[in-house]
Every structure is written in C-alpha cells, then in structure tokens.
Amino acid sequence: xxxxxxxxxxxxxxxxxxxxxxxxxxxxxxxxxxxxxxxxxxxxxxxxxxxxxxxxxxxxxxxxxxxxxxxxxxxxxxxxxxxxxxxxxxxxxxxxxxxxxxxxxxxxxxxxxxxxxxxxxxxxxxxxxxxxxxxxxxxxxxxxx
Length: 145
Prior knowledge:
The structure is a single chain. With 145 residues, the protein is an alpha+beta fold. The protein is built from three helices and seven strands, in the order E-H-E-E-H-E-E-H-E-E. It has helices spanning 11-22, 52-68, 98-115; strands at 2-6, 29-36, 45-50, 72-83, 87-95, 118-124, 127-130. Strands 1, 2, 3, 4, 5, 6 and 7 form a seven-stranded mixed sheet that branches.
C-alpha cells in the first residue's frame, strides 16, 4: 500500500490505521520507520515533488519482494511543503518473523533514499530552493544513461 498526502503526515492516525488493518493478519512483526524534518541549514521546512508513475512501479517491485517472504510493505509520503519537526515519510513492514521485517525495513528505506523519484527542496525565507547537495541521482536516469 502506497499513500501520498499533501503536506505533513498525521503519523499517529496512519500508524494506528495500518496496525488495525493488519491486526488479524497473523503477522508476528510490525516495524515502522518515521522520517521527520530536522532543523538544519536554517531551513523552515522541506518541499517535495513526486513522480508518481515511477514511484508506483518502484514500490510495487518492493511489494513483490516482500510478498515472496510472506510480508507486506506500506509507505506514506508527503507532496508539497512539510515544516520542521513534522513527518514527510513513513514506511512499515509486516511479516511473520521479526528477522524478515528488520531486514526489509532497512533495505527498503535505504533503496527509497537512493531510488525513489522524489525531489526535495529547502524552504528558506519563503522560497523553495532545490536541495541539490542532499539529493541522489536516480540510477538509469539522465541523458547519458
């Protein structure tokens, strides 16, 4: 399940709903990861652009990997502006065994940072400035790929 929201994520509501959706699914492990906007470089927050077709394809490939291990992955991400100390990203793995969930959440979050088609902008003094120094080129993208 992939969910996109305008603005900051309501972490308690999303986690509660996901837990309730899977409470009777007989998973032995539920491991969430929550990303929040931290105060650095004098930013007021971050802003996100999302290219949904590639993000859906990327997420579905991860969902297939998880399914092969009897697990599922859920993810929520923000579009637009998210201010300091608010959340822009939640991922969770539900699996029969804790080791599967622990390994998948680590690999999923790392690959998300490297491969998801989401562009980040700093919010400073009312301006939206591309955060090039904290961005990662998507493998296979660009004119010379």
